[in-house]
Amino acid sequence: MTNTEILTALTELREPAVLATVVATKGSTPRKVGARMLVGERGVVHGTVGGGCGEGEVVEAALELLQGGRPRIVRVNLLDEPTSWSPAVCGGTMDVFIERAKW
């Protein structure tokens, strides 16, 4: 997601939003460093950091930030046991930095 896409989505949204950026990965992950997603008060607005349960964790943390939380890194663990029911087993981890989107 480019800076122009972020600004366009924020302008159309007209509400506070959180920018989530993948800042580190280890092992196999669905997205790589630099992937970004905007999250508004009603959920994902634009982009993705990988989908599935891991992205759900990031959205939940983003919504907490919108309610007065602090910017932080969310560690997304994609190392579940291969026998688990989770569809999020990629074999790696991602660190996703969440911060208030500025425009």
Description:
With 103 residues, the chain is α+β, with helices and mostly antiparallel strands. The chain has one domain (3-100). It contains 2 helices and 5 strands; from the N terminus they run H-E-E-E-H-E-E. It has helices at 3-13, 52-66; strands at 17-26, 36-40, 43-47, 72-77, 93-100. It has a 5-stranded antiparallel beta sheet, sandwiched between helices. The radius of gyration is 13 Å and the shape is globular. The mean pLDDT is 85.
Tell me the number of strands.
5
Q: In angstroms, what is the radius of gyration?
A: 13 Å
Shape: globular
Largest sheet: 5 strands, antiparallel
Enumerate how many helices there are, as a single number: 2
Could you name the ranges where pLDDT drops below 50 across 5 or more consecutive residues? none
Keywords:
about 100 residues, alpha+beta, five-stranded antiparallel β-sheet, 2 helices, 5 strands, about 35% strand, globular
Set down the secondary structure blueprint.
Blueprint: H1 3-13, E1 17-26, E2 36-40, E3 43-47, H2 52-66, E4 72-77, E5 93-100
Summarize the entry for a quick read.
This protein is α+β, with helices and mostly antiparallel strands and 103 residues long. It has helices at residues 3-13, 52-66; strands spanning 17-26, 36-40, 43-47, 72-77, 93-100.
